[in-house]
Amino acid sequence: MENSKPWLKPALEFGPLILFFAVFMLYRTDTVLIAGRPYGGFILATLAFIPALMATTAIQWRMTGKLAPMQVATLVLVVVFGGLSVWLNDPRFFTLKPTIIYLMFAAILGTGLMLRRNWLGAVLSEALPMDAEGWRKLTLRMALFFVFLAMLNEVVWRNMSESSWVWFKTFGLPVLLFVFLLGNAGLYRAHALPPKDVADDDRAL
């Protein structure tokens, strides 16, 4: 299914985020009454984002038969913190969610480094075959990058407007991730496994 429809995977991954942005921009200056309670555009966008992410995650699971641990963790935190924002009508819980996610990812990667376990490679080795030293370097860089993103999210949501945070969340974070991945192209090349070694390396993970 994925091969016949190459647009489907990015649509599932970015669809809920684009929906969040669209709903927020549509209602950002309005207040809507739901069950007698007034909700602003941010809460309405969050209310749309949660079921959309649940649906796209379920579709990805049905398509592939599996979900990455980061996908599961992200979904749980979105439901918990997004649900708190909607329930308490307070956007701060949802804006705090990326900080928690990035710190958690950084902690997981850091723990893997300390235990000398290649957890990142176990997830991504099929798409990016590298030797053990390459995965160690990438894991360290990615852990530090996630800490940076967590700190940056705190600066943005605590010091800027809701609109600024939504733009940052929708476009800024994906661009930063893309730049990070592109910036490590030299590492990928330097530590790439020869084709004949890929299968052996996968069995060793």
TrEMBL record:
<comment type="function">
    <text>Plays a role in cell envelope biogenesis, maintenance of cell envelope integrity and membrane homeostasis.</text>
</comment>
<feature type="transmembrane region" description="Helical">
    <location>
        <begin position="140"/>
        <end position="160"/>
    </location>
</feature>
<comment type="similarity">
    <text>Belongs to the YciB family.</text>
</comment>
<feature type="transmembrane region" description="Helical">
    <location>
        <begin position="166"/>
        <end position="187"/>
    </location>
</feature>
<keyword id="KW-0812">Transmembrane</keyword>
<keyword id="KW-0997">Cell inner membrane</keyword>
<feature type="transmembrane region" description="Helical">
    <location>
        <begin position="100"/>
        <end position="119"/>
    </location>
</feature>
<feature type="transmembrane region" description="Helical">
    <location>
        <begin position="71"/>
        <end position="88"/>
    </location>
</feature>
<keyword id="KW-0472">Membrane</keyword>
<keyword id="KW-1133">Transmembrane helix</keyword>
<dbReference type="GO" id="GO:0005886">
    <property type="term" value="C:plasma membrane"/>
</dbReference>
<feature type="transmembrane region" description="Helical">
    <location>
        <begin position="39"/>
        <end position="59"/>
    </location>
</feature>
<dbReference type="Pfam" id="PF04279">
    <property type="entry name" value="IspA"/>
</dbReference>
<keyword id="KW-1003">Cell membrane</keyword>
<protein>
    <recommendedName>
        <fullName>Inner membrane-spanning protein YciB</fullName>
    </recommendedName>
</protein>
<dbReference type="InterPro" id="IPR006008">
    <property type="entry name" value="YciB"/>
</dbReference>
<feature type="transmembrane region" description="Helical">
    <location>
        <begin position="7"/>
        <end position="27"/>
    </location>
</feature>
